[in-house]
């Protein structure tokens, strides 16, 4: 495992940075994730429970040279980030992609995503930054003129912060023909009922909005067009519905579905760990433990104590599993890896069978291999697929950062100027906004000295943890400790933060000016040739 040297400091600062993004906006749904809504997340733990997002702390020790947003817990969750971390450690190919919907000025909340893309690029990843102009037009009703104005600003800030266009790719959805062709193919694996269930679409939803969602699925898988590779999508948790659907579509596009099996019949996902546990317990019931039979396994399972097997399943799962085992009778219960023919051409299926080493058994729509591990089987299936014209997509990974609290409370939003500091704000205006921000301070200076401030509820402290401390964990920790210890009062704290914000904006805007010539030299248009009126509201 690779860690920073200052492990104790990292752990402390990580705890200090864990705020819940302030109080939820009035009427916000604590667990609903809406990519186009404005709800905040009042309790990030619910995302682990309700949506299966995993805690980033679990994978953090395996991440080489983690970014300070990771160390401080600002990046709090992930889906399947392990393959990306492994690729970084082993020097293998991987990619990072995220997009920006140009509906307003880029602000300091967007800087989190800019930084995450750039950090992954510097760790050796293929980096992609995209302008989601089709989404802005269809979902937000932006005109092409408005989109063009904001798109240039997002690109300039990304370049000014350190994105290397020679080692990465920038594109607009509307100009990328390969992307749109991929979206068309992905659309054949999606259906409208899914969009109703995931996004709440109904009969009033305009068709271009539906098309923009499929385009976003193509964005997420776009880095794998040339070759399959681990790919991470850094986003806020409200974008998780897109990630989940993209993972499903990546799987549906595969030529072969690879599963673990134990007999000729097919198991549901819920039944598979139960049968694995029954096989491991074969010495308790099998007449011949080297060749347990499905029938005797089913009979034993019908009476077995599930707790003793270490498997938690519903009783209905036990019943369906017992029935399948009983119906298989004298067939041996024997582990194997199964290749199911999902979308394969006949030539690809035949090539797969030929490529399997060791014992194998062929059926009409699948083939079982007895000497291949699941991981090796999955790689073999991918190789055959790519060799025969398929994509071989790997399920995309994602990381999730906490929302920055707006300077006036609630979620920071591009559409509420007072809630955020734009990366285009005059440095003096940025200074003034910080000075006017709400804080987690007490009612009086005396009470603050006695009880300490509430840094975990303070938008100004978030500015330190998310931006103003940069890579200096000790400084972030010092601000936190002085606040909660009563040594730091809000007036002086805001003055220091305001000065640092002014310095950051001055430096960033100088770099934006330097990036103008670079942007103009790149193969990305900042002026759309498209025509048309903005779609109506959904």
Question: What do you see in this structure?
Answer:
The chain is of the alpha/beta class. The chain folds into three domains: 94-253 and 395-401, HUPs (Rossmann fold), CATH 3.40.50; 256-387, no CATH class; 417-521, Orthogonal Bundle (Tyrosyl-Transfer RNA Synthetase). It is 46% helix and 10% strand. Strand 3 (95-100), helix 5 and strand 4 form a beta-alpha-beta unit. The protein is globular and about 80 Å long. Residues 1-10 have a biased composition (Acidic residues). Catalyzes the attachment of tryptophan to tRNA(Trp).
CA-based gyration radius:
26 Å
What is the CATH class name of the largest domain?
Answer: Alpha Beta
Mean pLDDT across all residues, rounded? 89
Overall CATH architecture of the largest domain: 3-Layer(aba) Sandwich
User: Helical proportion?
Assistant: 40-55%
Spell out the key features of this protein.
3 domains, seven-stranded mixed sheet, EC 6.1.1.2, globular, disordered N terminus, 10% strand, alpha/beta
Short description, anyone?
It comes from Halogeometricum limi. The chain is 46% helix and 10% strand. It is built from 22 helices and eleven strands.
Please give the structural blueprint.
Blueprint: H1 7-16, H2 45-51, E1 54-55, H3 68-71, E2 75-79, H4 82-90, E3 95-100, H5 108-122, E4 126-131, H6 133-140, H7 144-160, E5 168-172, H8 177-187, H9 192-199, H10 207-221, E6 231-235, H11 240-252, E7 256-261, H12 272-280, H13 294-303, H14 306-309, H15 315-328, E8 336-341, H16 346-355, E9 360-362, E10 366-369, H17 374-387, E11 397-401, H18 427-435, H19 445-451, H20 459-468, H21 473-484, H22 490-521
Parallel strand pairs: 3-4, 3-6, 4-5, 6-11
Antiparallel strand pairs: 1-2, 2-11, 7-8, 8-10, 9-10
Helix pairs in contact: 1-21, 6-10, 7-22, 8-10, 10-11, 13-15, 16-17, 18-22, 20-22
